[in-house]
Structures are given as structure tokens and as C-alpha cells.
Write a structure and sequence with these properties.
alpha+beta
Length: 351
Amino acid sequence: MSAAKEQEGFVPSMESIKCPCCGAPLTFDPASQQFKCEFCLSTFPKKEIERPTPCEVETMPEALEEYNCPSCGATVLADANTTADFCAYCGNPVIHRGRISGEIKPDLIIPFKITKVQAQDILRDFLKKKKFVPRSFFDQANLDKVTGVYHPFWEMDADTNSSINATATTTNTWTQGDKRYTKTNYFNVYRQGEIHFEDISVNALKDADKVLLEGVLPYPINEHKPFAMEYLSGFLSKKYDLERQDVEGEARAKMYNYAGKVLSDTVKGYDSVKIDKQSVIVNHATWDYTLLPIWVLAYRHNGKVYTFAVNGVTGKVFGEIPLSKTRQWLCAGGIAATVALILGLIGGLLF
């Protein structure tokens, strides 16, 4: 990954991505990884629609439309060909705030590979395996609200020299006469190694549901591509509001915990291992501002909003499961009726 370049000179043009055949808008199709015209049904690889630029200055090809949710405060961005009518996070109507420019350009992006229909199927199959989910969740009108959103993350690569001092134990137990004895042996253990970390991802949004967004991690490392505005066509995106220095501590904490696990896992032949002291020295680190693809669905049930996230590449699902009290009561009633019937039969047999 290349180091993130915070360039303020984003001056997008008003030009949108047009079909070379008929001039209609193009959108990115995750299934084919190409750009598709819904009017004439033509498809084009990215290289065929890239517009030449007079210089190497990284600028956005077009301005973005900003939409704000007055209910939960979420803000999303869309290109000129994409509109947002409702909030992907709470389901309420959004307000179009107008066109913005000057956004800092991401370094990398992982394009969607899972289509909207596939995301709907994944959610449907995932929740069919759960008990007491309200039947209204499976209504097509609800599943049609699933929305593809690119979420901002800061990603760190790092070369480290890591070490641990640990206490390992072995335990022997034996019986002598009518007594049982246990002997615990203690050993001082040291492990050291050079560990390379790649794509330590940290959410770059202040008010986002961190548990939800990070619940669909990780993403395949080899799916990263240099950012191109064309990938946003047909999808929404969030703009980051946490700077790299705001999340650096969290990224280093993740690295620290993982390094400890990697080194302690090399200690074999003991019954237990406890880390007493740990050191992680970062020799070199680079950062990228990256957009990661997530399908989002907000479902309202009994006055509460349940939000689900689906990894736009792997299909991993994360979210809180809604429960139908009616279905719970029906199930409980069925169990009670069955128990009463069995007791009645037993009573009939006994008397």
C-alpha cells in the first residue's frame, strides 16, 4: 500500500460516466466487474471508459451529491447517477443537501463483488436459520431496501520486531493411597520475531456502529485496487471524519494483541502460557485511506431499528437478530399444549 496522500485539491468536474454506445449513464456491476448500461445493455471494462486527464493530479471526475438523515444523523455521498431516498441505517427519509466537492481522494478501494440480489439471498438464508425472526423481515419490500455503501477505513501496513516474555506451566496429577496430588512446573519462556502486518483496518467514522462495520471484516487483501470514481457508480459512500492520527492508537492496539497471539502460539508442549511482558517495535509503517464495500439493511420492528451488514466481497453477515414475541408466544403455547397432552395421556394411563 502507498502512504495516504491528504490532498485538498479535489475539484470534480460535472461530467458523469456515460455509455460510449448510447450516452446513457453507466453503473458498476459487481457480478461481471464491468460497467453496465441499463438502457442498451452494453458492458465495458474499466479501461474502455477511463477519461484521459491532462496531468497526473489526482482529482475526482465529478462532484458528489450529499444526503443527510435528520433522524439518525447519517450522511452519505452519491455520484450524479445515484440517488438516495431513504437512510440505509435507520430506514427514514433522507434530505438532499446538494452538490459538494473538494473531498479528499481515497488511496484504495475494494469494489463490490456481491450483487444486491445475492446480498438479499444471503440475508434471507442467514435469518431463516434463526428462531423467532418476524415474518415481515422476509418480505421482498423490506429486502429491496438493502443498500450498497462504501465505508471509509484507515488501513495500516507495518514491519515490526516483536517479543514476549511468558510463563508456561505443565501439570502432573497422581494418586497415592487415598490422596490425590498435583504438581505444577513453571518455565520462563522467551519468543522474538519479525512480524509483518498487512491491512490492519480501523473504522474512520466517529458515530458509526463500530461493532457492526468491523463485524464483517476481514476483506481479501488481493481485492484492493487504486481508487477510481467509476467504482462508486450505482452505490453510496460515506466520507471519513476521523483522521489517521485519531485511529493510530487503535490500530497499534490491534497489532499489539495479534503479535502477542502469534508469538504465544509458537510455545508448544505446555499446559498453559501466560504473557508477562510484551514489546512491539514498529520499524516501518504505511497508511491508506480505503473504501470497503458493505451491503446495509435497516429493519424496523416494534419501534426498534435492527441494522444488518453484509461484506460486499465475502458475504459475511453481522447484525442483531430481531425476535417476534408473537412467534415466541405461539411456540411456548405449542410446547405447553404438548406437555398438557402428554400429562393427560399419562394421567389416563395411570388412572
